[in-house]
Write a structure and sequence with these properties.
alpha/beta; Rossmann fold; 2 domains
Length: 221
């Protein structure tokens, strides 16, 4: 039923190439990628960086907070976890004292956390992934599981790095590698701005205008 319904859709817009491939595989349809808007203007560079790593978001099982807890338990490096969700209750008792659970934070505090972080940890596989782009808009490099939308938003060696096995060991190795890398916060932010609200608006308006013109012409025939 889902496949049949998809055949009646005139046009598909995918929020990443990752989703575009899924549309092609399961619906046998072509689509255009327009990345979703990220409010990058809310975030800014900071001249002062802390020594902590950061995780942000609603912590449900597929976000894989457990991998981060296991990795930072082993490394002993400071990790701040912002957000609420079912996984907090599961992972907090397992976490050592170097892992701090902040709960829900306000927009201003969140912006400060992003800007002060040494690196942003993203163990989840997402269709696109908003929070890594928010981190990069703050000039903060990302350590991400190398699947899904982050492969399109994070530039390996320039705005972050990846780990390719969904395990704590792989994340530990990625963090150790990250510790030896150098990043340019200004370049990271400049890259993040390409995913901003206004970029999305221009692309979406252009897409709608183009296809509305094609539609109106076809109606006149």
């Amino acid at each position: 039923m889902d496949y049949k319904a998809a055949q009646r859709v005139d046009l598909f817009i995918a929020n990443s190439m990752h989703v575009q491939k899924r549309i092609a595989t399961y619906y046998k349809r072509q689509s255009t990628v327009i990345y979703p808007p990220v409010s990058v203007e809310r975030f800014s560079l900071s001249t002062e960086r802390g020594d902590y790593y950061l995780i942000v978001g609603r912590q449900v099982a597929y976000k894989r907070l457990d991998l981060a807890v296991d990795a930072f338990n082993e490394l002993g490096l400071p990790l701040k976890v912002s957000g609420v969700g079912e996984e907090i209750a599961k992972q907090k008792p397992r976490a050592k004292s170097n892992i701090e659970f902040l709960g829900r934070v306000g927009d201003e505090q969140l912006a400060d956390l992003y800007a002060g972080a040494k690196g942003f940890i993203f163990p989840a596989e997402e269709d696109f992934g908003i929070v890594p782009v928010e981190a990069m808009a703050s000039g903060t490099p990302v350590i991400a599981y190398g699947e899904g939308g982050v492969l399109e938003t994070v530039i390996d060696g320039k705005t972050g790095t990846f780990f390719h096995e969904k395990s704590a060991l792989a994340l530990v190795e990625a963090i150790k590698r990250f510790e030896k890398m150098k990043f340019d916060p200004s370049f990271i932010r400049k890259h993040a701005l390409t995913f901003g609200d206004m970029v999305y608006r221009r692309k979406m308006e252009s897409y709608v205008d183009e296809h509305w013109l094609e539609y109106t012409k076809s109606r006149k025939r």
